[in-house]
Amino acid sequence: xxxxxxxxxxxxxxxxxxxxxxxxxxxxxxxxxxxxxxxxxxxxxxxxxxxxxxxxxxxxxxxxxxxxxxxxxxxxxxxxxxxxxxxxxxxxxxxxxxxxxxxxxxxxxxxxxx
Amino acid sequence: xxxxxxxxxxxxxxxxxxxxxxxxxxxxxxxxxxxxxxxxxxxxxxxxxxxxxxxxxxxxxxxxxxxxxxxxxxxxxxxxxxxxxxxxxxxxxxxxxxxxxxxxxxxxxxxxxxxxxxxxxxxxxxxxxxxxxxxxxxxxxxxxxxxxxxxxxxxxxxxxxxxxxxxxxxxxxxxxxxxxxxxxxxxxxxxxxxxxxxxxxxxxxxxxxxxxxxxxxxxxxxxxxxxxxxxxxxxxxxxxxxxxxxxxxxxxxxxxxxxxxxxxxxxxxxxxxxxxxxxxxx
Lengths: 114, 282
Known about the structure:
- By secondary structure, chain A is of the alpha/beta class.
- Chain A has a single domain, classed as Nucleotidyltransferase, domain 5 (2-Layer Sandwich), CATH 3.30.420.130.
- Helix content of chain A is 25%, strand content 25%.
- In chain A, helix 1 (51-61) packs parallel to helix 2 (74-82).
- Chain B is of the alpha/beta class.
- In chain B, 36% of the residues lie in helices and 28% in strands.
- Chain B has eleven helices and eleven strands.
- A nine-stranded mixed sheet of chain B has the order 3-6-7-2-8-1-9-10-11, sandwiched between helices.
- Chain B is elongated and about 70 Å long.
- The A-B interface holds A 44, 47, 49-54, 56-57, 60, 75, 78-79, 82-84 and B 76, 81-83, 85, 87-88, 90, 92, 94, 97, 143.
């Protein structure tokens, strides 16, 4: 399973979680089966429009199964839903590592279609 | 002759100047048309109170899937605005992000993407005496203002066309300047006014439209002559502050009808604008 976390800096697992999904500057993609870790620059973040859908397609390209962020916009939500990527909300400001631990412990709330 | 009344900063007096010029020329017997192209906040109608004789919905083409998609992803790769996604065998269009370029339709190998009209606003046409009136209103929640701005500004009309542009220097303002003979930039003698005037002058020059300047509330604020001279755009008029203009505007009245001194100022601006436009043509 591949889990992505939206983060402020593409440096390491101590980077703080970025509270916006579409405009997050970086994502870290962690592969639970291989233990691999990839830092992905969010190329969609700087566009005037369409950051949410752009970031969602980026996640799909990286084969992500679940993504952790603070907020998901309506377009990002629809796009991630289409891509069958699960969304988890982390509203505190922990590091990427702490957010992942909370996720694994089942402490993060999933955003579900209404 | 196409005259676009624009500004960098908002609230400098575009509508005051454009409605006044339009009425002035129409009353002189010139075939004239006032176009309110500020589709996010059209307000010329409040002053001109036109008799509307035609209203039509404005559409822009957006892609629609008709048939079985192979999810090759070419549409998604090409879309500069992330308005179409092809993920896991399914295609999703986000019409409100689409800029109607049509690239996705051209790129679609199975040919199942088609362009379909999507309504984004309303265009009205009418008259104020002998003056033709056109304006556009973007639907609430829509983001593609520039598209409707283009549609409103390009409504066919002859004679002297006075376009009341949206403020700023972004896509909707740029859309109004296409095909203009001259841009009348309305500013005020404040740091904001002058800063944004500088941006507006650069916008006009990069689009090949000669700018001239009207300074509104010209006797308020600081000494701006040096700053104006630096821009190198001719000043075609100065409107001194007059509480009677403010009162008339607040009531939705036509200021040239109630403030004779202002009517004279407008006549002077009209003459200078005509002259500058003819000079620019030759």
